[in-house]
Prior knowledge:
By secondary structure, this protein is an alpha/beta fold. The protein contains 13 helices and 15 strands. The chain has helices at residues 7-14, 42-54, 65-84, 99-114, 133-142, 162-165, 187-196, 216-219, 244-249, 284-300, 302-308, 380-402, 440-455, and strands spanning 93-96, 120-124, 145-149, 169-175, 200-204, 223-227, 238-242, 260-263, 268-270, 316-319, 329-332, 357-358, 374-375, 405-408, 413-416. The strands form five sheets. A seven-stranded mixed beta sheet has the order 1-7-6-5-4-2-3, sandwiched between helices. Strand 5, helix 8 (216-219) and strand 6 (223-227) form a beta-alpha-beta unit.
Amino acid sequence: MIVAADPKAARIVADFPILSTTTSxxxxxxxxxxxxSSQKPRAVIDKLVDYYENYxxxxxxxxxxxxxxxxxxxxxxxxxxxxxxxxxDTAEIIWTRNTTEAINLVSFSWGxxxxxxxxxxxxxxxEHHSNLVPWQLLAEKTGAELRYVxxxxxxxxxxxxLDDLLEGVKLVALAHVSNTIGSIAPLEIIIPRAHAAGxxxxxxxxxxxxxMPVDVQALDVDFLAASxxxxxxxxxxxxxxxxxxxxxxxxxxxxxxxxxKRVSYETTSFNELPWKFEAxxxxxxxxxxxxxxxxxxxxxxxxxxxxxxxxxxxVRAAPRRGSRRRDLxxxxxxxRPRPGLDPRHRGRLRxxxxxxxxxxxxxxxxxxxxxxxxxxxxxxxxxRRARRSARKSSAGLRDRIASAQWTTSTKNTFWTTxxxxxxxxxxxxxxxxxxxxxxxxxxxxxWSLRSTATTA
Length: 456
């Protein structure tokens, strides 16, 4: 049972089944990685199960009952997302796999046909690489110039030269909220000035849509991309919002399947929006479940979600130590590393080893040439003692291996010894003779005689 001081917080925690589980150490699971991927409430999980158990069928083509039911649920989820971001038309919501695919869709279907040498793309120094690499490749293909809005040491965009940077720019692509430091871009300044310069604006809203109200009409943004798995929805589903006039002028991103209206051997006509950009069989189940996630966020309120994910008191952005670039920032809570923290990681918790590691070697991974001693995760001081003990036991084990009686098998060569309980099936080929400290010469000669006899 989970007890919280805030009754509403306790109810929210109870909505997520995974938060009632325990870790391998017997501790209650505490999840702090929602910026990478959020956990799923029971309502979303139940919606997935309901689809697969009760009306699993393809959409937009069947006339039987469960196909019609699946189609209705699929399109209703699109309508929910449209209302969630206040799109003017449901057809302006395109299903994608995630934010990354949505950005690449714009890069291929709009960028390749609207950019040329002499044009420019403007992004910022705070972008996720999914909102950086597509524009680098697009600039290489079209001959356009790629520019960056700089940031200061606190992770804020420096807009002093924004008008100069916007000269000749056709596309501005930026994150609404930084995925690393949480800084919020001043869209009320950037978007109007970008439009005044003749540029369109693409907004990476993967971090903002789950945590704050986002109104695409009020922002007057041209494209907006988001992922379902960051907003309590399933993985493998996201969406792209685009103004209808822009989407209608863009050619398809992928072809085949549901994006076809009429096809013949000579020519093909494409479907209407939004299906023109949804080739093949869509991710039906996850789209329906994303609709349930939107309902859930609407019930608890995105302001409540933002309050639960606010930065802890005392956290501030600081330049990375030793870096020559001021745009590289990291979180720093303490001026000096505390005892028990690794100073190489600047006050962050020491990265833990995998659940099982090789104590005899004192490093991660499997030991191929010596007996493997496996230890659970331990305190650092206890690990040192365990490694010393393991080395001693390994040395004694190697001495017993050295005095073992060698035998042969029809399939391979194995060793046995009465000093070790049972027969250990360890291939001699995986053992190194220099590691055998006792009777090494006799064993090597015996080994060579056995090998010669086997070969003969």
